[in-house]
Write a structure and sequence with these properties.
The complex is a heterotrimer. Chain A is an all-alpha fold. Chain A contains two helices and no strands. Chain A has one domain. The relative contact order of chain A is 0.07. Chain B has ten helices and no strands. Chain C is mainly alpha-helical. Chain C has one domain. Classes of the chains: A mainly alpha, B mainly alpha, C mainly alpha.
């Protein structure tokens, strides 16, 4: 185990800003993509049911 | 085939000459945009000499992208482009002729004016020579790559801005070797390596781009 | 059963629907395994400290950005040459994910560069090439979105993707050369620390995770594209 406590883990040897800035934005952006793509799929299914003209 | 090639070039040049102001707009943009940099950055000669090759090349890139849709747009609007597609002659030859005309009317003027810009930026004679040579080799590359972009975006509402986004990334190697040639001279070396690479790029794009452009025209019009 | 049966949008739709949950699961499992290995097991680097741990998402993201571009160009070209609609639709579905990974590679590269080399952005060969790759993705997406006719859009995109794919080695070579000429002022970001086995394992696991994730997202998006473009088809009406 590399860290003795959660505090040390978040501190990341002083590089917390960079490591979490990188991981955080990555997670955020991937989550955004998942949400967007699922909404697109749902909208496509809904448009079919309501017979949206092209 | 070569007769048609030249005939198209002559026709396009004639059309450009009839709309002289429109044909010279890219040149005006080029000079103006380059001239903005000393005002916006710094008029100090040392700084200008450093940024000159990059500034001139980027302004040439942008000027080329501005004018490139003209290659096909007016022919597309009056229907003659579709006729050209149906013609028995080679579409690739036709495209090559149009690209040549575009370069002669838009690119070559930039090359001829660039020494003056070089003087504005306090460049020495050898650097100006290298820069002009690099533009002489580079501007045809821009016309060739621009033709592919113009053909892909034919008739689209967002045409002009889209051409920028689509074509500019592809011009980066030419930009690197073109400005590198001037940089080499500034460092006291020969620009030959850079100019040779630029020449190679020109040959490859000269062979490949008209083919891609012809394919793009068929995609856009069928 | 020939795999070409999945060229039919209806069969691809069904297959993708069945595979997607497994891809999500794989992405989550590999991701957790990779993160655990990367943070709990892999040791701290002697020179870069804990900042190097960004490598576990930076490198996999960069790999995915390149792999997806090639896949996108391949399927787009396939659709153009063989008039295979499904291939073109799949290429279109890949593009946003590829662009996203390119952005992640750039962002994480910057956050890695700042503590290790002192600046947020470094014009080293790989980051600069990655930046241009992002522009190639955006150009493809912009072009395909700007054309309303699905067939013209797909074929124009295919040509552009092919031209881009062919240009990538040229661009990379020129940027690398440009970078070495300016060696004095720029240093290569992402000079990886001496890779211990656990570091490599973590990176590999994260790559597998991103790969499974890409399939999951691309399948979902492709299914949406199929519904959008094939809305007139009978099998779609029957859904």
């Amino acid at each position: 185990m590399n860290w003795t406590s959660w505090g040390a883990f978040f501190h990341m040897g002083g590089y917390g800003l960079y490591v979490w800035g990188a991981y955080g934005v990555t997670a955020f952006v991937l989550a955004l993509e998942i949400v967007a793509v699922r909404r697109r799929a749902a909208r496509a299914r809904a448009d079919l049911q309501h017979g949206v003209a092209e | 085939m070569s007769a048609m090639w030249l005939a198209i070039t002559r026709r396009d040049l004639l059309l450009a000459r009839r709309r002289r102001v429109e044909a010279l707009l890219p040149l005006g943009f080029f000079v103006l945009a380059a001239g903005l940099f000393p005002i916006g950055v710094s008029p100090e000669p040392q700084m200008l000499r450093q940024i000159a090759p990059g500034v001139v090349w980027v302004c040439a890139l942008l000027a080329a992208m501005l004018s490139v849709t003209q290659m096909f747009s007016s022919d597309h609007l009056d229907g003659s482009l579709e006729q050209m597609l149906l013609a028995p002659q080679s579409l690739v030859a036709l495209v090559a002729g149009k690209v040549l005309a575009h370069w002669l009317s838009s690119g070559l003027p930039l090359v001829l004016v660039s020494p003056l810009i070089g003087l504005m930026f306090d460049m020495d004679a050898r650097s100006i020579g290298a820069m002009t040579a690099s533009l002489l080799l580079g501007t045809p590359i821009l016309s060739l790559l621009g033709a592919v972009g113009a053909a892909l975006t034919l008739g689209l509402r967002s045409g002009a801005a889209l051409v920028f986004l689509v074509v500019l990334p592809l011009t980066v190697p030419a930009l690197i070797f073109g400005t590198g040639a001037v940089g080499a001279v500034a460092a006291g070396l020969s620009p030959q390596a850079h100019l040779s690479l630029l020449g190679a790029l020109l040959i490859v794009s000269g062979l490949a781009a008209p083919l891609a452009t012809a394919a793009a025209l068929r995609i856009s019009l069928e | 059963m020939k795999w070409t049966t999945y060229a039919a949008p209806s069969r691809f739709y069904a297959l993708a629907g069945r595979l997607t949950p497994w891809c999500w699961a794989a992405a989550a499992l590999f991701g957790l395994a990779g993160l655990w290995t990367g943070f709990a097991i892999a040791p701290t680097d002697f020179q870069q400290g804990d900042a190097y741990r960004i490598i576990f998402i930076h490198v996999p993201a960069a790999w995915m950005s390149m792999v997806i571009y090639l896949a996108m160009a391949f399927w787009a070209a396939w659709g153009w040459m063989l008039n295979a609609r499904m291939a073109s639709m799949y290429a279109r579905a890949l593009a946003p994910t590829g662009a996203l990974f390119t952005f992640v590679a750039l962002w994480t590269g910057a956050f890695w560069g700042k503590p290790t080399w002192g600046t947020w952005w470094v014009w080293d060969a790989r980051l600069t090439s990655e930046f241009i790759l992002l522009m190639l993705y955006l150009g493809y997406i912009a072009l395909t979105e700007a054309i309303d006719d699905p067939r013209r859009s797909a074929n124009a995109g295919a040509l552009l993707a092919l031209v881009g794919a062919v240009n990538i080695p040229v661009i990379y070579f020129s940027v690398k050369w440009w970078n070495t000429l300016h060696q004095g002022s720029t240093i290569s970001v992402g000079a990886a620390p001496k890779m211990v086995a656990t570091m490599l394992t973590a990176m590999l696991l994260m790559t597998l995770s991103f790969w499974a994730y890409s399939f999951a997202v691309a399948f979902t998006r492709a299914r949406a594209v199929v519904l959008e473009q094939e809305s007139e088809a009978e099998w779609v009406r029957g859904l």
